[in-house]
Amino acid sequence: MSFSENLRTIRKEQNISQEDLAEMMNVSRQAVSKWEQGTGYPETEKMILLSEKLNVSLDYLLRDKKDFAEPQKTAANLTGKIMIKSLDTDVIVSCHKVFISPLFNRLFKATPDVPQYALFGIDTVTFWGENRTLLGWYADKESADKEQHAIMEALQNGDVSYELQYAAKVKKGLMSVKLDTEEH
Fold it and tell me: Pfam family example for this protein (predicted)?
């Protein structure tokens, strides 16, 4: 997919009309139409603003989807602002978005002693894309989903901070991360 197709798809997924997007970008509806038809492109400053307004990275907006895997837009991708403290480090991130990412695919086989999922927080979006911070490791999808659900509840309750509850304890090596199965 090209920029024009990506823009049209993202705009429609977010239920934004061409008129609304034009107003957000301070351009004419015809300009948005030209962008979506591939007969015109926004200036660099507008492109950056466009990625911010649509809450997607420039890579996701510009590149062919088969070359770049953006986390799927689902209810699991939370939005809002909340301070999140990780379990195994002293990292505290003011996140406007969190998402779960599987750590293995069909090219890499998972083993039972390593985390299967990771939770990432997005704190800023820059010209180069989203700044992602690893928040926690998870032994299985169920634990990661529970964490994400708890964060969503905290956001809905108006909480300003959240400490991870379901992340797995891990042992970090120089080039590896393993689940810490020792009882303390």
Answer: HTH_3
Q: Which residues pair with 94 in a beta bridge?
A: 83
172 found inside a domain? yes
Which residues have C-beta within 8 Å of that of residue 138, sequence separation ≥ 6?
Answer: 100, 115, 116, 117, 118, 119, 144, 147, 166, 167, 168
The range of the structural domain enclosing residue 52 comes to 3-67
For residues 123 and 167, membership in a common domain is answered with: yes
Overall size of the chain counted in residues: 184
Task: Looking at 26-71, list the stretches that DSSP marks H as alpha helix, in order from N- to C-terminal side.
Answer: 29-37, 44-53, 58-62
Residue 184 lies in a domain: no
Residues 55, 58, 63, 65, Cα dihedral to 10°: -20
Residues 44/37, Cβ–Cβ less than 8 Å = no
Q: Is residue 72 part of a domain?
A: no
CA angle 70, 76, 78 (to 5 degrees): 85
Point out the domain boundary residue: 40, 67, 94: 67
What residue has token string 């990432």?
120
**Separation of alpha carbons 101 and 178, rounded Å:** 17
For 66-125, what is each residue's pLDDT tens digit?
444 444 434 334 445 788 877 666 667 777 777 788 876 544 566 778 888 888 887 777
